[in-house]
Amino acid sequence: MALVALSIVTVLLVTYPFTSVADVTFAEEDANLSSPEIIHKYGYNSEVHNIETQDGYLIELHRIRASPVFGAADSNKLPVLLMHGLMGSSADWILIGPEESLPYLLSDRGHDVWLGNTRGNRYGRNHTHLPPEEREFWDFTFHEIGLYDLPAMVDHVLVQTGQSQLHYIGHSQGTTMFFVLNSLRPEYNRKFRLMHALAPAVFLSHLQNPLLRFLAQHETSIMHFIHTFGIFEVKPFPEDLNRLAKTLCPDFYSRALCLDAMHIMTGNKYQHMAQLGFPMLLRHVPAGCSLKQVAHFGQAVTSGHFRPYDYGTEENRRRYAGSDVPPDYDLTKVTVPVVIFYGLGDQLTHPADVRELAGKLPNLVALNQLPNVTFNHLDFLLAGDAKDALYDSIIGNVEQA
Question: Which residues are catalytically annotated?
Answer without folding.
Answer: 172, 346, 377
